[in-house]
Amino acid sequence: MCEPKGISKSEEKKAYILQQAYELFVEKGFYAVTMSDIVERCEISRGGLYRYYTSTEQLFRELIRRGGEADQADFGVKMEQGVPFADILEGFLEMQHDELKQIGSSLTQAAYEFFLAHREAEDRKLLRDRHGDAGQLLSGLIRYGIERGEVAAIAEKQAAAAAEHLLVCLEGLRILALAADLDEHFFKTQLEFAAYALTGGTQP
């Protein structure tokens, strides 16, 4: 894969380390991953790793932050391009469906492990900020749909509440996906209902 122009060698190395750490956290969860695991996976020296990251906690926080930035960039580009609200919503819900179907191959379990164990002010703020950013992202999308006349069931002043409701629904589905043996149809039905609620009964 070609690296984008303008990225320094240092940023390339950090991105590589983060990708390897991501894969390890997905495979093992948060608790089971050590800095030694990351050194081995990256095939670099311990000093080479510690030059950029000094703990698994620091690595995980960076992964959470970057994941949120990527989501915002994707939504922003599509809205700037004038992509229909229904198409953006459908793509977003398809990604959620894929994550739920393959919950064991996502960062979800590691994220729960991390945030349930780390209750320091820094991590509480990170979680609040991540939730707040997701809420703003979805409420912005809903307002975009209202402006385009594609969302008739929700008034603009209700956009934030509707976004929050969708976030709570998705969080509950993730917990169920981790804890219960539910089939793909269950998750698809719940996500379709969420879409109907947003679009006033029109399938996206």
From TrEMBL:
UniProt-listed PROSITE patterns: HTH_TETR_2 (PS50977)
Limits of the HTH tetR-type domain: 11-71
Feature: DNA-binding region: 34-53
SUPFAM superfamilies hit by this protein: Homeodomain-like, Tetracyclin repressor-like, C-terminal domain
Matching Gene3D superfamilies: Homeodomain-like, Tetracycline Repressor, domain 2
Lineage: superkingdom: Bacteria
Keywords tagged on the record: DNA-binding, Transcription, Transcription regulation
Name assigned to this protein: HTH tetR-type domain-containing protein
